[in-house]
């Protein structure tokens, strides 16, 4: 059952009154990227809103919008601190899409980062750790599933490369990926996962993120990310560059 919440807040600007004519308008300040703010409650009819979307899909049961928002709102300051405390490179930013499966009791049965354009496993793992400790209301009608996006704005735009531009470099290191799997008891191939990385001078990976729709041991992700940070990629020639690559 699909759940959709549209919410946010527009600031109310109060114009002053008086007999004197208003001063000449000034040039608006340049926008400054902000850290994510607390997710707003469901909109009331008398409140103007800008759009924020939360998608939810029930498998056997469902949760209301407020039942989804509530537990996440309570932990939102901690989620904000995941980026503030870890201080990634200034150009790191993107969306982390969490996917939840909630048991009839309201306990968490499963949560994964099914997609991420953030490209920083330290922050992603921090968010995932918080999400694993959430408790929700009892879903109506059975277990429920929903996806929840969390946006971490960057302070600058970056150039995005096509996966093919890092494919050859990634394929050279498949044996190292396999070694990470063996180190955590994955004797066969690990489930599909996606790496998102930023490239700096000389083709060095300055930040690496990890996401998968499947539940994968954090130790495997830790190992993979650590290995990727040592690899050399095509030099982006002075332009901060982001690329994603999926290992099947």
Give me some keywords for this one.
single chain; 248 residues; alpha+beta; TolA/TonB C-terminal domain; five-stranded antiparallel sheet; four-stranded mixed sheet; 6 helices; 9 strands; globular; disordered N terminus
Radius of gyration using CA atoms only: 21 Å
Poorly predicted parts: 1-38, 40-59
Per CATH, the class of the largest domain reads: Alpha Beta
Helix content: 10-25%
What's the overall geometry? globular
**Series of H and E elements:** EEHHEEHEEHHEEHE
The number of helical runs is: 6
Distance linking N and C termini: 29 Å
Number of strands: 9
Going by helix content, strand content and strand pairing, the class is: alpha+beta
Largest sheet: 5 strands, antiparallel
Strand content: 15-25%
CATH topology of the largest domain, by name, is TolA/TonB C-terminal domain
Largest sheet strand order: 1-2-5-3-4
How would you sum up this structure, described in words?
With 248 residues, the chain is of the alpha+beta class. It has two domains: 2-7 and 49-152, TolA/TonB C-terminal domain, CATH 3.30.2420; 159-247. Helix content is 25%, strand content 25%. It has helices at residues 65-74, 76-86, 121-131, 164-171, 174-183, 218-228, and strands at 2-6, 53-57, 94-102, 108-116, 144-152, 159-161, 193-199, 205-211, 241-247. The strands form two sheets. A five-stranded antiparallel β-sheet has the order 1-2-5-3-4, with helices on one face. A four-stranded mixed β-sheet has the order 6-9-7-8. α5 (174-183) packs antiparallel against α6. The longest helix has 11 residues, at 76-86. 28% of the residues are buried. Mean pLDDT is 81; it is low at 1-38 and 40-59.
């Amino acid at each position: 059952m699909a759940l959709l919440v549209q919410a946010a807040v527009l600031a109310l600007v109060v114009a002053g009154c008086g007999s004197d004519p208003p001063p000449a308008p000034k040039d608006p300040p340049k926008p400054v990227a902000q850290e994510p703010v607390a997710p707003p409650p469901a909109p009331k009819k008398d409140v103007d809103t800008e759009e924020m979307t939360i998608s939810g899909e029930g498998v056997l049961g469902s949760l209301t919008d407020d039942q989804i928002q509530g537990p996440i709102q309570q932990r939102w300051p901690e989620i904000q601190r995941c980026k503030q405390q870890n201080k990634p490179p200034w150009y790191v930013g993107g969306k982390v899409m969490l996917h939840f499966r909630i048991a009839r009791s309201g306990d968490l049965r499963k949560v994964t980062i099914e997609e991420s354009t953030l490209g920083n496993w330290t922050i992603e793992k921090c968010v995932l750790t918080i999400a694993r400790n959430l408790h929700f209301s009892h879903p109506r009608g059975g277990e429920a599933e929903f996806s929840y996006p969390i946006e971490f704005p960057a302070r600058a735009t970056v150039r995005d490369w096509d996966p093919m531009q890092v494919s050859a470099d990634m394929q050279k290191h498949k044996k190292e990926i396999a070694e990470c799997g063996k180190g955590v008891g994955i004797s066969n191939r690990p489930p599909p996962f996606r790496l998102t990385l930023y490239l700096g001078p000389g083709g060095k990976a300055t930040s690496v993120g990890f996401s998968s729709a499947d539940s994968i041991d954090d130790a495997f992700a830790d190992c993979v990310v650590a290995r990727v940070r040592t690899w050399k990629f095509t030099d982006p020639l002075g332009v901060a560059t982001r690329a994603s690559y999926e290992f099947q």
